[in-house]
Amino acid sequence: MMIIASDPLLSSDIGFSVVAIMLLKVVIAFALLMVSVMLVIWFERKIVADMHNRVGPSLAGPWGILQTLADGIKLFFKEDLLPERADRVVFRLAPYLSLVPAFLSFAIVPIGGDFTNGGDGTVSIFGHRTLLQVADPPVGILLFLALSSIAVYGVMLAGWSSGSKYPLLGSVRASAQMISYEAALGLSMATVFLFSGTLSTSGIVSGQATWNWNLVSTGFIPFIIFVIAGTAELNRPPFDLVEAEQELVGGFHTEYSSIRFALFFLAEFMNMITMSAIAVTLFLGGPNGPILIKQIAWVWPILWFFLKVMAFLFTFVWLRATLPRLRYDQLMDLGWKLLIPASLGWFLLIAALNIGEDRGWSTFLIVPIGLIVLSLAALLLNGAIKKAKDSSLHAADLSEISEGVDQ
Amino acid sequence: MTGFFLSQIQGLDPLTSDEVLVAQNVFFALIALVMILAALKMVTTENIVHAALYLVIVLAGAAGMFILLGAEFVAVTQILVYIGAIIVLFLFGIMLTKGSFGTEEGELRERNRMAVLVAVLIVAVTSGSFIDSFRDAELNRQAPSTTADIGDSIFGQFIIPFEAISVLLLAALIGSVVIARRDQ
Known about the structure:
Chain A folds into two domains: 2-352, no CATH class; 362-402. Chain A is 67% helix and 2% strand. Chain A has 13 helices and two strands. Chain A has helices spanning 16-51, 67-77, 88-106, 140-161, 165-196, 201-206, 214-217, 221-233, 245-248, 258-283, 299-322, 328-359, 363-406, and strands spanning 122-125, 128-131. In chain A, strands 1-2 form a two-stranded antiparallel ribbon. In chain A, strand 1 (122-125) and strand 2 (128-131) form a beta hairpin. In chain A, helix 1 (16-51) packs across helix 10 (258-283) and helix 3 (88-106) packs parallel to helix 10 (258-283). Chain B is mostly helical. Chain B folds into three domains: 1-101, Up-down Bundle (Four Helix Bundle (Hemerythrin (Met), subunit A)), CATH 1.20.120; 108-138; 145-184. Chain B contains seven helices and no strands. Chain B is globular and about 50 Å long. At the A-B interface, helix 4, helix 5 and helix 13 of A face helix 1, helix 3 and helix 4 of B.
C-alpha cells in the first residue's frame, strides 16, 4: 500500500512497544492541551487586563497563574442544574459534542520534528522512528474540517435542548455563523493544497522546509482570509455574536452551570489553540525553523512551533481587547459577499498559475489576464448585490406604505 | 481516534482474498448493529430532533464502513457533507419552523403504511441491483482509493457526469432561491 507521508512507526510490525508509544503520544497530547488551556485562559485575562489598564488575576499563585485552576475547582463543586424544560439526554450530551472534536483535531498537528535538509520530521523514541503527532492520516486537514463541522452540533444542541428562548436564538446564530465561515475557511485551505499536493499535515509541513512558507507562496490573501474565517469559526471577538450579552444573556450556554459550563469553556479555548496550530501548520511552516545548537537539535522545532502558536494566541487576545463586535448582518455580508468570493477567486488565479507553469505559458500573461477576469467578476458581483439591496429596500418602502394605508 | 484507526488500516498488510480478516468482520458486525438499531429508533421516535440525531448515528456508521474498506477520503467526505451540512440544515429547518407536525392517529397510521411500502420497495430495488451488478466480484485490497486517485478519476474519466451533477445541483439551488423569494 503506497501512502505518502505516513507515520513510519506503523509501517513495521505492530508490537507492544509501538502500542506503548501510541498511548504515550495520546497521553502527552491530552496533558499538553489541558495545561495549555489553563495557561491560555490566564494569559488572555492577564493581557486583556493590561490592555484595559487593570491588574487582572493576581492572587492565586505567582502573577495569578493558578487562577484557572482555582476557577475549575470552584466550578466542580457548584450545583449542576438541569432546567425543567430541558431535553435531558441531549442537554447532557451537548458539552461532549463540543469537547471531543476539539480534542481530536489537535491529534493531526505536528508539534515538532526536523523537516529541514531532507529530514522527514521523525524523531527516535525507544528505537522506533515516529512523527511528533498523534496521527498522520492521508486525509489530514480534511479530518480537521470534518471535526469542526461536528463541533457545530455541540453549540446547536446545547441551545435547543435548554428549552428556553435566548439559548435557542444564540445557538441558531452560532451555527449559522459557523457553517457560513466554514466555506471560506475550506477554500482558503484549498489554495495551500495546490502547493503542497497533499492533504496530510506532515506532508504540508515538509513542503515548507526551505523557508518557502505557504504564507508567501500563496500570496498572503488566503492567510488573511483563513485568520478572519478562523476567528469567526471560533466565535471569538469581534465575531462573538453568539454570546452577545446585551442581546442574548449568555448565548447558547445560558442554562448551563457547574462542570458542564466548564466543558464548553474548555472546548472554546482548546479550539482556539488548535486553530492557531493549524494556521501555523498550513501557512507558517509548522515547526520549521533554524536549528541553532546542534546538540539539542530536537528542541528547536518544538520551540519554533510554540513561538508561532503563541503569536497567534496573542493576536486573538489582542483582537478581543481592541475591536467592537460586528452587527449580525455585517457578519453575514463579510462572510458571504466578501470572503467566499475572494477566496474562490484567489484559488482560481493560483490554479491558473499552476496549470500555466505545467504547460509553459508565460506568467506575465496569466497574471494580468487572471486579474482582469477576476475584477470583472467582482464588478458583476458588486452590481448584483447593489441591485438586490436596492430592490429589497424598494420592497420594504412599498410594504411600509401599504401598512400606512391599512392604518 | 478516527486518525488512529486510519493509520491502523494503513499499517495492515495486504490480504489474500481467502484470508479471513477477523477484526474487520467484528467491526463490520458492530457498526452494522449500531446502524440498524439507530435506524429503527429514528423511525419510531416521537421527537423529530431525536430522529435527526439517530440519522446522524446511521450516517456516522456508514462513514465507519468506508474506513473499514480503506476509503478514508470517502469516509471523511461523508462526515463533512452529510453530518456536517445536510443534517445541520435539517436541524435548522426544524428549529426555525417548529410548527405542529400532524400527529393524529389515523393520519399517522396511514402514513406509516405508505412509509413501510416505500421502504420495502427501495430495499428490493437497491439490493437487487447491487447483487445483479457485483455478483461474485471481490474488492481489490491491493489498491486502496487514495484522495489523489479519486480526484484523478472524477476530473478525468467521470468529468461529464460530474459536471452534469454540478449543473443539476446549481439548478436546484437557483430554483429554491426563486421559490423562497417573496418580494416580487
